[in-house]
Amino acid sequence: MSYPDAQTAALALRPDEPVYCFRPDQLAADAEAFRTAFPGRTAYAVKTNPHPLILGGVAGAGIDAFDVASREEFRLAREAAPRADLFYMHPVKPASSIRAGLAEYGIRHMAVDHENEVAKILREARAAGIDASELTLFVRLATKGHAVYELSRKFGAAPGHAVELLQRVARLGAQAGLCFHVGSQVLQPDAYEQALKTAQWIRSRAGVPLAALDIGGGYPARYGRDPKHDAFPVPSPGELLPSILRAVDLAGFSDIPLIAEPGRAIVARSLSVIVRVLLRKGQRLYINDGIWASLSDSWTGKLTLPVQLIAEPDRLRPKGDPDRIVPFRIMGATCDSVDILSRPFWLPETVKTGDWIEVGHIGAYSLSLRTDFNGLYPDTFITVAAPFSA
Ligand SMILES: *Cc1c(COP(=O)(O)O)cnc(C)c1O
């Protein structure tokens, strides 16, 4: 079903369960904005939102490469974009998925951060009759920096180890690449600049030809602003990428192909969710969604989500000024006591039981992290034309 905007949809459907509002034009515009700002190859990170509506929109916007991490992601990406290149950038892979990737999906680009992973991949390639020279193995660097979500505690080789890995990959006859992923919702370019300096040092020490540099994901999306917490305005990809590209240049990488793996920056704004206030208790709102459904990313990242009240018509309002915006504590739908959002929703003080709230910019890490805990699994989608506005 299609609606001009979320308000019209909420008042027509009067939904008691969450309803996702998909905005194809927003998705196309944000994908296009990234591609315009980034001169290399854009590989959309499928885990950010693997829903066919989203993958179809990403492919429709001309993105022809996908960062994938499992057989199911290979399948979904291939279904949305039959001719796209798949980059298997999970540093630790089951042999059976490597085999399927090589044989069924034509995957030739993979990440590694340990010699045994290199051996595992080359063994599978040999068994499939694929020459090592057809493969590009990207050595993943450990990075440090300020991201809202930090990932280097889990993956990545330290600089000295990365030098050895590059030399090993080259010696075994595969193409060598370098990659890093500095985290997610990275608000300043310094994390990338630091990683690029490390990459430069590694390249100079390794002394092997590099086939490509993959600078990963992490580009931020705009959310709401909490007057108490959020000091920085969030840069758009168009604002952040020029500084990163300058750092790429300075580190001497403008001579080889570049790849980026954006997720959040492309899809965040393409989806909102209409939730309902099941009960208001003072300054607390109990809603029909929460951290076990669409909103866990905001909980982990302590993000203030932008919201719009859709008031139930013809009802008496609690006393107050509808123009006064105040913080409400948001209690999630499940019986779990951790299911309380880490940041409030800022709403008119007259909000009441039965009202709807449109929660904007939830396209990243929402659908992919939904659970059916307590039997509550939102899965209703509509298409909405107007952009979200808080
Ligand atoms: C999750 C992930 C991405 C996407 O990150 P965003 O912050 O959504 O841009 C890209 N690359 C790798 C390796 C990832 O793990």
Automatic annotation (TrEMBL):
GO terms for cellular component: cytoplasm. Its cofactor is pyridoxal 5'-phosphate. It comes from the Bacteria. Its EC number is 5.1.1.1. One of its GO terms (biological process) is putrescine biosynthetic process from arginine, via ornithine. The active site is at 335 (proton donor). Residues 273-361 form the Orn/DAP/Arg decarboxylase 2 C-terminal domain. It is an enzyme of class 5 (isomerase). Keywords: Isomerase, Lyase, Pyridoxal phosphate. The keyword Isomerase applies. One of its GO terms (molecular function) is ornithine decarboxylase activity. Residues 27-268 form the Orn/DAP/Arg decarboxylase 2 N-terminal domain. The modification N6-(pyridoxal phosphate)lysine is found at residue 47. Belongs to the Orn/Lys/Arg decarboxylase class-II family. This is Alanine racemase.
